[in-house]
Amino acid sequence: MDERVREHAEVLVDWSARVEPGDDVVVSVAEDAHELGVAVVEALGERGATVTTLYGSDELSRAYLKGAEAGADGDGADGDGDAVPDFDDDPAVDRAIFEAADAYLRIGGGRNTTATADVASETRQAYAKARTGVREARMDTDWVSTVHPTRSLAQQAGMAYEEYRDFVYDAVLRDWEALAAEMARMKGVLDAGEEVRLVTERDGAPDTDVTMSIAGRTAVNSAASVAYDSHNLPSGEVFTAPFDTAGEAFFDVPMTIDATRVRDVHLVFEGGEVVDFAAETGEDALAGVLDTDPGARRLGELGIGMNRGIDRFTDSILFDEKMGDTVHMAVGRAYGACLPEGESGNDSAVHVDMITDVSERSRMEVDGEVVQRNGTFRWEEGFEG
Amino acid sequence: MDERVREHAEVLVDWSARVEPGDDVVVSVAEDAHELGVAVVEALGERGATVTTLYGSDELSRAYLKGAEAGADGDGADGDGDAVPDFDDDPAVDRAIFEAADAYLRIGGGRNTTATADVASETRQAYAKARTGVREARMDTDWVSTVHPTRSLAQQAGMAYEEYRDFVYDAVLRDWEALAAEMARMKGVLDAGEEVRLVTERDGAPDTDVTMSIAGRTAVNSAASVAYDSHNLPSGEVFTAPFDTAGEAFFDVPMTIDATRVRDVHLVFEGGEVVDFAAETGEDALAGVLDTDPGARRLGELGIGMNRGIDRFTDSILFDEKMGDTVHMAVGRAYGACLPEGESGNDSAVHVDMITDVSERSRMEVDGEVVQRNGTFRWEEGFEG
Description:
2 copies of one chain form a homodimer.
Chain A: H1 3-16, E1 24-29, H2 34-47, E2 50-55, H3 58-72, H4 92-100, E3 103-108, H5 121-130, H6 132-139, E4 142-147, H7 151-157, H8 161-172, H9 176-192, E5 195-200, E6 208-213, E7 220-222, E8 237-240, E9 243-251, E10 255-257, E11 260-270, E12 273-281, H10 283-290, E13 299-305, H11 317-320, E14 326-332, E15 351-357, E16 362-366, E17 369-373, E18 376-377
Parallel strand pairs in A: 1-2, 1-3, 3-4
Antiparallel strand pairs in A: 5-6, 5-16, 6-9, 7-8, 8-13, 9-11, 10-11, 11-12, 13-14, 14-15, 16-17, 17-18
Helix pairs in contact in A: 1-2, 4-6, 7-8
């Protein structure tokens, strides 16, 4: 076994999930994540945890949903004349699992990132709705989501398998203690600040010059640990929930929205809302997002990527938005942890992150003071003020 | 997908487990049993069941137990100075799973039948003991155990992979309704009978001539369905719990006891107990079984194999003991279902099946009347009386 697989397991169990002796831990292992699964349960055994292992197979999920669709077509179990299956909205076993669990470790890494592509969206939605209670019980555990590097994920990233493995371990095997301390500085700046301004002036791209209020909002130091209210490994971003956005923003990192590749998004904000937009490719998909509901035209998140172990974009939001020298904004839903007690923040059915490269000819100001210029923070060597 | 995989799934879900719409079904999928897992959850979706999928990986089990051993060695979670790990004897998640489940489908088929060979037997025993409550909750569900044909099982059987697949499907894809009806005849004979005598006279092998009482005992028609109190797929045997055995029995089918190959076992019974024994190879392993406890020297089971889809021995008791033209006897524990209400029957920590080929120069009598001669039952064509 590659020693890095063991190190990944140890980071997951100790730094991220903070597993203690006697904890009841549920581990979900995707089809091709067996190797990391072995290392994780070995570490859990050593820590004195009790383990239950689920098979997190997208191919089995697809088969179940397709079977349910076939059963709903008349002569099956359902037979209400409607082609959308009826799912049990109180699944007793899964609810019992997450109510009894202290921690939930999800190890992604399937054989095909599009394994469920032919399941009708009505079926997915009906299933997701029936699982609301299970999802809530799961979110009440110390949950952490990570991925084992697989050939299918390498392919999605457009990389060779060996190269992709290096990429993942560079992102995951950080000095998290040190990064958390650095991110705490960024959080301090945002928590104390009232207004953020982001400016980029790059050749051949529209300028970004956008301001937003963050007064009264609390930033999350997303340091890949439940101790930081952070549930992804890798992580490495600081984010907050802005409002009253004004100006223009250009996002030069490609993204995928509903299986459509979207490039070079340009948004114009007035009074907190998107009043004009464009995209070089995939503009219809972008329009679909913005038209979802009123909240989809307002920002729900401003995030600063600070994980310098991530050195390229791989078409995976788990990695892309954490990359050092990037800033992202999401239209749609805001995270509750960023909001003052009792305030609901921006609400929407969507949350779509858009990323901009800030490594050159850019600056971010908080209350008029430059915090990051050309990717360098003000506490770093080489900062030019 | 091989159409037989789908048929296997349908037999498992419909004939064996009798799944109904709304049932909560837990499916455990071994490492290389993915394909059958897909077919099973698709069938369950179609029937309107709710599904939870566990990852039944022997390699993960080994890793967990080895991790626990490492943790018990001093500085880990355990630290009681004892090298045997302490396991939680009330594992909350697993107990919750089986208490909430209606049915449990175990799909075996790993990558290595000896995957846990280097785990200390004290560790296994400690784990098994801690899981007593979970096991009991699991046995209270409509549970069924089957296997997907894998390369590892083909290797154990000494067969090519394609050949082994044919073997498994011939055993599993029976006309179970018809076989259950035929086995009901055998059960009727045993339930009405008081004494069984088995005689074999074969060249170059010691003769078998053994009698046992079955008075008051109830035979199980093991027709691979929870409706028949039968929990293995394939099955295809009728078995009861004999006592007062006398005479000699020779078992010409090889078996594996604790990883030792044992061949040509010869047992001599007096007053219900084994008073002398021999084996051509593996005699020490046989002695170890017989010396376990007093009940290990008495028979706990007499079984008649009636599945003619099984045409050879594959060193797997799931298949071997069900083979047509065989009879098996087990030393050790008797099954409760065979015993009169309130009677405990033969008790032991072991239950070891030994098989004899009855296809030629043999006869089985019940109360002096021949029921099977040279493998042919008295209700079959060609029976010679």
